[in-house]
Amino acid sequence: MSRARLLAALAAVAAGTAARAGDPAAILLGVLPVEATQGLAADAPLRVTLELNPPGLQKLASLREWFPAARADGDRVTVELPGRAPPATSPPAAAQRGPSFLVDYDRPGAAAFREAVTALGAAPADAALTALVDRWIERKTMTRGIDSAARVAAHREGDCTEHAVLLAAAARLAGRPARVVIGVALIELEGALRGFGHAWTEIHDGAAWRLADAAGLPAGVRYLPLGVMADEGPGYVGAAWSVLSPVDVRKVSVAAAR
Question: Where in the chain are the domains?
Answer without folding.
Answer: 3-256
